[in-house]
Amino acid sequence: MKKIIVLLLGIILIKCSSTIEIPKTEKIKTKNPTTPYIYINGFNKVDIFPVLLINNNDSIYINELRFNAVYSSFYTKKVMFEKFGMWDKKIRPNNERHPILIWKDRKLFENKNELFDIATSGIEKGGIIYASVIVFDSDNKDCLSVDSKIKDSIINYFSNGIKNLTNDKKFYKTYWNMIRQYDRAN
Fold this sequence. Notes:
The N and C termini lie far apart (78 Å). The strands form two sheets. The chain has a six-stranded antiparallel beta sheet with strand order 3-4-8-7-6-5, covered by helices on one side. Strands 1-2 form a two-stranded antiparallel sheet. Strand 5 (89-91) and strand 6 (100-106) form a beta hairpin. The protein is α+β, with helices and mostly antiparallel strands. It has helices at 2-16, 75-84, 151-163, 170-185, and strands at 26-29, 37-40, 46-55, 58-68, 89-91, 100-106, 116-125, 128-137.
């Protein structure tokens, strides 16, 4: 009898507790064999890709976290915008139309006081589509390197951020206004 009462109380507590629902990822079929599906508020897989950075005859590899087969290459940009608002800096390598957006000295994790510099980008080209992010800690160390103790936390942070993106259009309005200004100037 005690087991039944404990079981019933457990069921009642579970039913009354609040839960956060993660939206179900919807996938859309494409006509491209390279990326047969793209995912709304989701992704097919995550890769960490070494990117060669050249600056004044110095070269270094940095690690870029890529969320593949996303519906929009802007997803990581939107994750950051929804959490922190306007970016601090934009960089246009090779004078590209779509810049890398950078947020400086941001606290990603509630239970940690560490600040990070986050660069967001993405590609939608030739059947390849991904949203990406590069993260450095306050000591300018690559947080996505093989030996990083925080790499998994960053992957989870952006994975959950993509899965929980809102329908708010403020990011896109702000972003496309910036692009239109760039287009008029060039």
